[in-house]
Amino acid sequence: MHTPAASTATEQTTPRSGMDLGPPVAPRHGALTPLRLDEVRLTCGFWADRQRINRENTLGHCQQWMERLGWIDNFDATADALARSTDGEHHGANFADSEVYKLLEALAWEAHRSDDAELDGRFTALVERVAAAQHPDGYLNTCYGRPGRPARYSDLAWGHELYCAGHLIQAAVARAKTRGVEEPLVTVARRVADHLYTEFGPAGREAVCGHPEIETALVELYRVTGEERHLELARLFIDRRGTGTLPPIHFGAAYFQDDLPVREATVLRGHAVRALYLAAGAVDVGVETGDQSLIDAVGTQWDTTIARRTYLTGGMGSHHLDESFGADYVLPPDRAYSETCAGIASVMLSWRLLLATGDPRYADLVERTLFNVVAASPRADGRAFFYANTLHQRTAGAVPAEDEVSKAAGASLRPPWYGVSCCPTNVARTLASVAGYVATRDAEGVQIHQYAACDIRTRLDDGTEIALEITTSYPRDRGIAIRVLTAGRFALTLRVPHWAQGTAVLAEGGRHRQLREPTFTVRREFAEGETLRLDLDLTPRFTRVDDRVDAVRGCVAVERGPLVLCAESVDLPADLDLEDLRADLSVAPHPHPEGATVRVRRRPEPVAWLGQWGPYGYPIHEDDRAPADGGKSAGFSTTSPAGEDRGDQAAEASVESTSASQRTQWVLLRPYHQWANRGPSTMRVWLPAR
Questions:
Q1: Is 0.70 surpassed by the pTM of this model?
Q2: Residue 143 annotated to the active site
Q3: 323 assigned to active site
Q4: Which member of 45, 224, 239, 461 lies 3.0 to 4.6 Å from 453 by CB, making a disulfide possible if both were Cys?
Q5: Cβ contacts of 177-180, under 8 Å, gap ≥ 24
């Protein structure tokens, strides 16, 4: 991979027709070139399974709910109102159009990926209904601008008109890259974009939308069509943000990212999804215009946000009220908002920064967020979803009805649908295109960023063909086999996750190398059929927390490879409450096929406080004190102490001491993304330590 330096970018070819399927993000410049979705095919394993469930269940589930609630009928009502000049109803939130557009994007990627004629037919039928609602001048929105509805652009702060237009354009870009630029939806989107240029371009009103999204969409449309005005409008929207164009609100201007220009901000703030979409758009504009100041500014914001405002899972946003980032180190686990859409937006941003700079840190966060936020949202069957992703569920709650809409974003079990259902359709489009995050290429060879069973076939600029077959059940197992299918000289670069640096081993050419750096490149002549084997140590490990995160000071979490683990009440014996667990740091977590086992002590009995039992007055025991060796003996070793071998039996909690205050037990921790799939439960990621 490259030293971070977007200025060394080389021009890349932009696809102009469906004959050359483009990736979801296709920058013309950058350190790395993303592979097209027809160059990376997931074959089995973690992400392939989720793509299958997405195709078989989630896409139809989303469409059925939107038909049932009238969100798709809004387009029919708008078309009828335009034809007859009559009033018409509107169902759902004022941004319900965007959910239809995200579904269209998911259908576009998936219909091509799976060559599914039925999905393609559903896409075409839906596009016909959308296109019929477009105004003669290109405007398209079902909530505004027609008889009986508010006027166009009468509420830029909250109306989401440009936000919806952005998702429409992204759906059209997906179709252009899979079927060609002459597709009907592409024509609709180009007319929308031309209308927006007239309304908000250099000769139009100097304004922005309260919810960023249009910026990155316009850049992607520019990359497909080559029409400079789309890029120019995106740049104008980025430059206008932070100049006070939106009205004051009680959350403050930072909620809209309208408090500071993008180049002056040093941290992501305000509404998390808005902030991340804006940052992604700023990177896109910076890359395409050669404005390094934008890329550098967003890179600084990313650095600060990861260091101070990001959950262990990769989740972002700690405020429920305004769905916003909190202040530095305000990361309460039981009040984590960590919206699924924010996780997806974070992946979008990190991927763009990776392509621009080549810095593997961004791929590390992509991996963490995909496995621990995006994968956590859908239920195992793909028909229910988390909107918010708490890290500590204190009450078990009730099973949501399968035929009712949830009005609350925070839920103890995944509801089938929400009144604001931005997350299910966002998950659908992400899973349909997730193969796009696996690998990239440059002038020398191929870089593997995410490890999944897949086939990779690409061609370098000099004509060198590279075909690889990756076999793995990662992250369940540690082994990754990379078989070279075409002989030739090229460079193969492997990302080494931060948690594996120093323990990862690569076997190739009869040698075994221990990998200590964030990436490792094999640059030589490869023989057809030869196999490289990468071993990533998945020994579970304790993770401490920065003391400035008050909410979990004195706690530890357990991770296994890229997976954050959690304790769930359904895995505990009846007489052990989740709130009574205290991690025993004198013994390292032990590997288990389902995650890890951890030895815990029960909470000591309370003492009297103000004449009754209370939360204060617990005595400090000698074994509560930090070890003199700085923690090496406190269970932070990657191997269990000699003689400790719990094996699979550790899944059954076992009592090792009968003393009421010193009883120890082994409990099973499973991957966080699996929780709440076995009925009502309580759960926690951070465990108090002693």
A1: yes
A2: no
A3: yes
A4: 45
A5: 177/15, 177/18, 177/21, 177/22, 177/23, 177/24, 177/26, 177/36, 177/37, 177/224, 178/18, 178/21, 178/37, 178/108, 178/109, 178/111, 178/112, 179/18, 179/108, 179/112, 180/17, 180/18, 180/19
